[in-house]
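Practice problem 4.
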């Protein structure tokens, strides 16, 4: 059997993107047999994935348009099934219309060349142009199976594209494995704060790209200044790109904050999403602006306060009936700051709500794994 993976970033600065890779392969690895092959169509190299899943054969196929007539198309045609996650949140023109169009070219090819083209749990939309709508509809109609990770996406593709057979599950990163004992941390009350370098710098265009209503820099400085006085505060990166020109990197901002507030603890520059989740799992409370950092905390039982810049947060956590998400596009700096402090004070209420959400995640996990197993067994 030959399985193609598309829209997965095997090696990425973004540990959330990597988390989707490790989580999904941990599911399908149970169904693979000797001689089965996984093709990587993500455009990144394989990273450390083959070391972690050392009994699986991987083949890397860089999706360069100049090669479409040769290796890329030939490899797509070989696949019995293609699973596509679109990095979790890129089935949308929210980041860039050109970026979106480039992704859609590969999706169209996968839908044409493979009978079983499966869209894994992800966010669909928003779409800001009519052409983006048209392309999305064509891709969705070619899919053998469609999974949504939130109710907002499921409603959107139903109302806009009349796709009524999608399956609602949870983000795959909720099942990412971790080891709480990987790091030996203190027994003090620990707060983890993930600082998004992207939001701190104003987005890729450096001009409040995501239309935040609050001053993210000021909010972070207020939180670090005050919380570091009361708690053991860990500054935690989830996108780690030590390239000097990276606008997306969290680590350099966390390091700057640590130097400014030396009583804080700077978390290491993690090499894998499993390392990141293992560290985060040791926190008592976690505040984060990278969605998959909050998923790592939430799924390991840490009381979680997400700070949202995109509807994907409300989609994922809303589908779990977890209302303690701070919307940075609606709250101002002071109200967001006060909400964080209020939620910290209500720690036990958040914990109780989270326990109920985790039960729902377990049920959705069973549905998803069984459905994926059935697809593979059909081949």
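Answer key:
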């Amino acid at each position: 059997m030959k399985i193609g993976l598309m829209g997965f970033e095997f090696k990425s600065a973004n540990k959330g993107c990597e988390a989707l890779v490790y989580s999904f392969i941990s599911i399908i690895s149970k169904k693979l047999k000797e001689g089965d092959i996984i093709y990587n169509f993500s455009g990144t190299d394989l990273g450390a994935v083959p070391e972690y899943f050392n009994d699986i054969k991987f083949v890397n196929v860089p999706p360069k348009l100049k090669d479409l007539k040769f290796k890329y198309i030939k490899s797509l045609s070989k696949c019995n099934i293609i699973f596509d996650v679109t990095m979790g949140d890129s089935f949308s023109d929210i980041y860039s219309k050109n970026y979106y169009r480039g992704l859609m070219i590969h999706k169209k090819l996968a839908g044409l060349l493979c009978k079983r083209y499966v869209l894994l749990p992800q966010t669909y939309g928003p779409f800001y142009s009519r052409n983006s709508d048209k392309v999305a509809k064509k891709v969705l109609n070619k899919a053998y199976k469609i999974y949504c990770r939130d109710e907002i996406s499921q409603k959107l593709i139903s109302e806009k594209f009349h796709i009524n057979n999608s399956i609602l599950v949870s983000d795959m990163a909720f099942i990412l494995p971790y080891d709480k004992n990987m790091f030996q941390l203190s027994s003090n009350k620990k707060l983890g704060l993930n600082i998004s370098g992207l939001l701190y710098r104003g987005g890729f265009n450096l001009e409040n790209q995501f239309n935040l209503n609050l001053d993210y820099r000021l909010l972070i400085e207020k939180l670090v200044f005050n919380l570091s006085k009361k708690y053991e505060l860990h500054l935690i990166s989830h996108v780690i790109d030590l390239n000097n020109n990276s606008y997306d990197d969290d680590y350099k901002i966390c390091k700057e904050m640590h130097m400014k507030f030396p009583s804080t603890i700077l978390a290491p520059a993690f090499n894998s999403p499993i390392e990141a989740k293992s560290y985060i799992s040791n926190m008592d409370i976690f505040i984060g602006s990278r969605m998959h950092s909050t998923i790592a905390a939430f799924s390991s039982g840490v009381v979680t306060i997400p700070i949202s810049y995109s509807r994907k947060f409300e989609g994922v956590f809303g589908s779990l009936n977890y209302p303690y998400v701070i919307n940075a596009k609606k709250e101002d700096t002071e109200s967001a700051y006060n909400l964080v402090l209020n939620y910290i004070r209500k720690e036990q209420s958040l914990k109780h709500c989270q326990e109920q959400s985790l039960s729902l995640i377990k049920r959705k996990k069973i549905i998803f794994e069984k459905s994926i197993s059935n697809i593979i067994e059909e081949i």
